[in-house]
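Lecture 7 notes: from sequence to structure.

We start with a single chain of 411 residues. Read the sequence below before looking at the structure.
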Amino acid sequence: MVEENKPGGKDADETDPYANDPFFKRIFDGQWNACIGRQGHEENYIDGYIEAAIELADAIFEKQLIGKRDTLVLPILYNARHAIELTLKFATEHLIKASLIKDDGRKLSHNIKAYWDHLHNSAIGDEKLSQTIAALKPYIDSLSQIDSDGQELRYHRKRDDDPSLAEHAVANLRLIRDSLRELEKLISALKYRTMDFIDERAAGSYTNRCSRTDLLAITRILPRRDSWNSNVFDQQKVVVKEHYGLSNKQFSIALDRIQENREMRSVLGMESNLLHLTDDNIVSVVEQWRRLHPVREQDEDDLGLDYFDTRRFEAMKEEAGIRQEMLTAIEARLSPEALAELEAMFYLERDRVFAEYHESMIARALKEHAAAKDPKSEILHLMEKTNFLQCVRGAAARLGRLSLAERLKAM
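Now the structure, written as tokens:
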């Protein structure tokens, strides 16, 4: 009976369906248990194969595995090729799902050149994504030439029984290792930029040639809006059109989108109004917030808080009184809509949310406040944030309240 309770015994067989599996038997080991399957992520496959290629290449040099050069070079190159294949498929499938490129009806295959061609020829409309795809070309050309369908790096002979890699005799591992590190950067850039690009599109600020990131970059190239009739604007227009390959019409469309966007307008020096808050409302709230968070002088001799100082308890009583006065004053000043917008401004900057979502964030906050029916609690939640002023000032600048952001600098 004792034997049955040991790991791998009868009880283990009843609770672990893989008790006799040499790879997936359940082992209670928090340090070395790896998350796979339903606990893993799609990106793990991409990262795993390129990391495996680099780790193997590094191990050859670090451990001086001279005798294993001829055998390890094959899984190194195959892992690199498979990482590229998975990354191209990842980008393609996500962009198709988001309706950002067309589905060419291709069934899943191992032809990395075909996947790269599809992405490259799709005119995605994002400079960074297009540049990253273009930068992958040398790696695609190299590995697709020696292994067009994922066979030659895995098998000694191809389907037609010809020998694999027949036109190659040697491969330098130092060159391979250096190239793998550059490839890893491109794979990471393609993976993350694909997802960021998809998130940006949902905000609605783009053209068929320029992503939100591109439009913001163009905005920073252009002079302030009040200088658009100058020679400087004409010069920068030429620069922008050439850099992004825009026609006059496409450039005009980009300018329209820029001037519709709060954050981009602010970069151009253009003011925008808030929906429910006035500048004086916000300044008044910050003045109240300062009562709880006064500007402190830097004291090099300050040894910190003395927990045994009896004066501390008096200060706590005084602070409690200030807090109640502050809550009453702010509640009397702000409408429910204004309070919701103030909260939206704080989280817009703290979480770096796109300015396009400001209105929807206000609506969500207003709905939550109405359900809670406790405005003082909502106000206190904000007033206890030590970064409240920093976030509201940053949000004001991004939302186009430039004069307000300037006023808040002095507070």
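The chain has 18 helices and no strands. Keep this in mind for problem set 3.
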